[in-house]
Amino acid sequence: MPKFKNWNKLSLMADTDTLENITAYFQNLMLGLEEDNSKWDLFFNFDDLDKVSSIINSLNDKYDFTYSIEDIEYDDWHLKWKDNFQSIEFNKDLIVIPDWDNQNYSHKYIIKIKPGMSFGTGHHETTYLMIQELLKLNISSNKKILDLGSGSGILSIIASKLGFQDIKAIEFDEVCKNDIEYNMKINSINQNAIDISFEDATALDSYHYDVILANIEKNIIMDLIPLIKVKKSKVILSGILIEQQQEVYMKLVQEGFENIFINKKGEWVCLIADYI
């Protein structure tokens, strides 16, 4: 459970496209999200109120929306997820289910996640795109995977389930620590299977990994691209809106990446590239 007893809930009212765009600005602060047609509720640490307010003020002239902010109890919010959480299937290969679901499934991989915590349950388009690409990888236990902006740990957990044995997860916000460890436990992942570190994704000593995953806000991805140029590596990047894809694509080209592919879901894109 997060260390904050009270959280801030930011309620946004607008059309779906506008909500998608605004939410992108909060991706690194947001602990969770509830979507209900034209009203989306975003949840934040109580101490981040000033940052949230500053971002909202900067967006007032750019988008047509209304909003409200209120304090909520953590437990009250978490319980509401049980009414709304839906499992997510990736063909018959993998299914993401909530931690309270004890049904039997025929999928090859069954991933349990405690919803309403750190970013990453598979519901958001960016996480969905990342999981899709992760499932396409050539599985090899000796390949090293770096998961930047790991949030709930879902991508690292899936990588471990797929058979990868050298996994490094980087998350800036230590409030995610309990979330990641809990999600590892309920998926029967040994605590030593994933090397978790809480630090700035753009300030690592080494990026020498075979596969680099980054589901982070676009500006951080732009800073990361020159740092993750590792021979014979593959990068999978999301947290990028359709309107931002050309900028990221051109940055990859300028830095020498090849075999660049783009997948889309809703207003979001995922870029996959090789550094030869």
Features:
276 residues, alpha/beta, Alpha-Beta Plaits, Rossmann fold, seven-stranded mixed β-sheet, 8 helices, 14 strands
Binned, the helix content reads 25-40%
Strand content: 25-35%
CATH-level-2 architecture of the largest domain: 3-Layer(aba) Sandwich
Question: For the record, what CATH class of the largest domain applies?
Answer: Alpha Beta
Question: What is the total number of structural domains?
Answer: 2
CATH superfamily of the largest domain: Vaccinia Virus protein VP39
Taken in chain order, the helices and strands follow as EHEEHEHEEEHEHEHEEHEHEE
Give the N-to-C terminal Cα separation.
Answer: 42 Å
Radius of gyration: 18 Å
The number of helical elements comes to 8
- CATH T-level topology of the largest domain: Rossmann fold
Q: State the strand order across the main sheet.
A: 10-9-8-11-12-14-13
Protein architecture, described:
This protein has helices spanning 16-24, 49-59, 74-84, 125-136, 154-162, 177-186, 218-224, 245-254, and strands at residues 6-13, 32-36, 39-45, 66-73, 88-90, 94-98, 109-113, 144-148, 166-171, 194-198, 211-215, 233-241, 258-265, 268-275. The termini are far apart. It has a seven-stranded mixed sheet with strand order 10-9-8-11-12-14-13, with helices on both faces. It has a four-stranded antiparallel sheet with strand order 2-3-1-4. It folds into two domains: 6-82, 2-Layer Sandwich (Alpha-Beta Plaits); 85-275, Rossmann fold (3-Layer(aba) Sandwich), CATH 3.40.50. The protein is built from eight helices and 14 strands. With 276 residues, it is α/β, with parallel strands linked by helices.
